Amino acid sequence: WCPRRFVCAGGGFQPVSAARCGVDSCLFLCHLGYPGEGPPGSAWVLSCNLTSLNPRVAWLVAAHDWATVVCSQETHLTASSWHRVGSALRGQGLHGVHSATGVRPGRLDGASDQAQGCAITVGQGAGLGSVPVAPPPCPSFLRRAVFARVPLWRGGPVVCVASVYGFCHGGDLEGRTANEDLFEWVVGALLGQPYPWMIAADVNQCPATVPALASAARAGLGLDLCDLLPSLRVPTTVGAGGPANRIDAVWVSQGLAPWVADARVVDVGLPTHLGIMVQFRGRASGSPAPPVVVRPGFRHLFHGVGWSALSSQCHAQVWQAVDQVDAQD
């Protein structure tokens, strides 16, 4: 059997003419292998600070020609403008989620209802699921972070992705504390998920100095990709004199790290930031999703995934299992 329109992308079948029956048929080419024996799945993810998405919709559409997932920060969109931009993206076969711009800005956010804003967009055919998270300590944090559950490719790992825009504080104590609280909430939300995770962020300070990220690294729960690929340890902002400092980063859970095939800091034509491109690739076609490790010390994170709705009997069974893990650690 073969569909009338068959697109061969490295597999073993090529369309050939079958004039007598009037339909397309397929010719097996032994040097290309059988269906399912093609190259492992692969996906590119792009993280970038847009400094306003409104004039860059065409740029975002073009980025999806090669990127499966685009995590953008500082979109400067209101709830109504995201509705308009989202409609334009759907017209191009893209769909996505945006942070809660309907929430009032906090005192440190400034007065503008267009401040901050993050989005996660995926190409046609890619899935996009919701991620249950606990309420943040400050409601306006919902403006600065958005979460989505994304399968990187068909049959590949499902990843909880967060696109985050940190507080721009310049060393101010109050702003820096708010930034640390923001990332503590984000990291906590992701560690409570039953999937590997990725954070794509404009941290607005050196990522290694954020306590929640540094603690995750020390516990072996995640890492900055520049620790895996030192070539990424370069400035990511662009001023009048060229690159200035490294405040943009992509972090992944430890179980997702073996799937990272390549990563680069590149100029993708944005005003003040370079982009971070990450390629994930399966080790073999049909590989299972990477393992997820739930470590002791994060018990409270169960409360972010519907814990209160479970029965007391279920609670007791979970804690018994966790106690056994604790005893073995």
Q: Report the order of strands and helices.
A: EEEHEHEEEEHEHEHEEEEEH
Mean pLDDT: 78
Strand order, biggest sheet?
5-6-4-3-15-14
Q: What structural class is derived from the secondary structure elements?
A: alpha+beta
Q: Give start-end ranges of low-pLDDT stretches.
A: 1-38, 285-305
Shape: globular
What is the radius of gyration computed over CA atoms, rounded to a whole number of angstroms?
Answer: 22 Å
Helicity range of the residues? 10-25%
Beta-strand residue percentage: 15-25%
Task: Give the N-terminus to C-terminus distance in angstroms.
Answer: 53 Å
How can the largest sheet be summarized? 6 strands, mixed
User: What is the number of beta strands?
Assistant: 15
Q: Report the total helices.
A: 6
Q: What would you say this structure looks like, in words?
A:
This protein has a 6-stranded mixed β-sheet, covered by helices on one side. A 5-stranded mixed β-sheet has the order 7-8-9-13-10. Strands 1-2 form a two-stranded antiparallel ribbon. The N and C termini lie far apart (53 Å). Helix content is 21%, strand content 25%. It has 329 residues and is α+β, with helices and mostly antiparallel strands. Helix 3 packs across helix 4. The protein contains 6 helices and 15 strands. A hairpin with a 4-residue loop joins strand 1 and strand 2.
Primary descriptors:
329 residues, alpha+beta, five-stranded mixed beta sheet, 21% helix
